[in-house]
Amino acid sequence: MDKSFVLRGNICYSKNMRELHTVPRGYLVCENGRSAGVFRELPGAFKHLPLEDFGERIIIPGLIDLHIHAPQFSYRGLGMDLELLNWLDTYTFPEEAKYKNIEYARRAYADFVEDVKKGPNTRAVVFATVHVLATELLMDMLEASGLVTMVGKVNMDRNASPDLQEESAEASARATSEWLADIAGKYKNTYPIITPRFIPSCTDELMRALKTIQAEHGLPIQSHLSENKNEIEWVKELCPGSASYGDAYDRFGLFGGSAKTIMAHCVWSDEDESDLIEERGVFVAHCPQSNTNICSGIAPIRRYIEKGLRVGLGSDVAGGSDTSLFKIMRSAIEVSKLRWRLVDRCDTPLTVGEAFFLGTMGGGEFFGKAGSFDEGYEFDAVVLDDTNLKSPLELSLKDRVARIVMYADDRNIDAKFVRGTKIL
Ligand code: GUN
Ligand code: FE
């Protein structure tokens, strides 16, 4: 199909955090890969375009995963009796070391890409490993899938096992520059992102070198922030001069501002750190399933939203077990209720509409105009068939979308479009 066409069906999308908009049996117009809007009646100007009628099925924007580790897909569900730092040493680092072997990487990454492709997500911001070849292979495979992704070769020059850790700051920076040179101009839908793993993995010398590379290429940044209490204590010991964990990145210019940045977790960010997140326009990737699995805590997302922070959702596989952002929306709602009941009565629970916003438009803003069907947004759409979710009730379109968020799975996905191309 050309990149200009019309889809007909039951359309649902966020216009903002508060407004989940529904148009039953409406028309969604794609013009050159972007939305030209949603209409109750098809305007004459679009009547010449090819039309695909999805009948009673539901059409929503593609879901957006702001934080996932591709090499961790292989060991999802393992080590869930451990907390972050022990889990990294026992499961994560030994597994990631295997991606030095390109044949292992090929097998493992094929499983990962296949799983994300058949799910409801159309975009993701991805950690690879330290290995240049395996990272390039992952990017080739993601490009072939049709998904839109940002992928980071991970940097780590301290505090990991010798078989994973890079030799020196200089070696890590050099590998990063080689990686960027290799992939320059190679892809349409796959972009590089600078990826210092987290403060405990990166020396000051490496952070300075990454800032130089980031500024030279104008690249975005991703990392982890204030996920676990022992981790935060460790960062205090490593960086006695920093006012906060966030400040430990900010000192190097690796915390938002002119460099678009995602920080995953922010479970324990206090008032000062969340002020800095707000000032620098850093995106928070809320990863509720991971935060539950490895007992990190419950991030105060209501507080962040009221403060005006930019928030999206992350699966954080393998901290999280599911790549589907529907499951992460569900988890965000669940943990928000526990937080309100057990921790802070000011943090009112997230509604379905709010979780839907976070998993589409909230994360989508990191990619520019993605995550909505308002005119001008990039055309990512997922078509859902909910006929197997049986009920004798007469359901409104909003009710049907609520059921999808609360208990749909990949079997409900009927078609998927990314940037105006049908990939499923
Ligand atoms: N912090 C540093 N590395 C990781 C990782 O791989 N997963 C999670 N959840 N947190 C981290
Ligand atoms: Fe993570």
Task: Explain how this protein is built.
By secondary structure, the chain is α/β, with parallel strands linked by helices. It has 13 helices and 17 strands. A seven-stranded mixed beta sheet has the order 3-2-1-4-15-16-17. It has a four-stranded parallel beta sheet with strand order 5-6-7-9. It has a four-stranded parallel beta sheet with strand order 11-12-13-14. Strand 2 (20-31) and strand 3 (34-39) form a beta hairpin. The protein is globular and about 60 Å long. The protein binds guanine and fe (iii) ion.
Alpha-carbon distance between the two ends: 12 Å
Main pleated-sheet profile: 7 strands, mixed
Number of strands: 17
Question: Strand pairing plus helix content: what structural class?
Answer: alpha/beta
Number of helices: 13
- The arrangement of helices and strands along the chain is EEEEEHHEHEEHEEHEHHEHEHHEHHEHEE
How are the strands of the biggest sheet laid out side by side? 3-2-1-4-15-16-17
Strand percentage, roughly? 15-25%
- Average pLDDT number: 98
Shape descriptor: globular
The value of Rg in angstroms is 21 Å
List the helices and strands and how they pair.
Layout: E1 5-14, E2 20-31, E3 34-39, E4 51-61, E5 63-69, H1 84-97, H2 102-118, E6 121-127, H3 132-145, E7 148-152, E8 154-155, H4 169-183, E9 190-192, E10 195-196, H5 204-217, E11 221-225, H6 229-238, H7 245-250, E12 261-265, H8 271-280, E13 283-286, H9 288-293, H10 301-307, E14 310-313, H11 325-342, H12 352-364, E15 381-384, H13 397-407, E16 413-418, E17 421-422
This protein binds guanine and fe (iii) ion (FE).
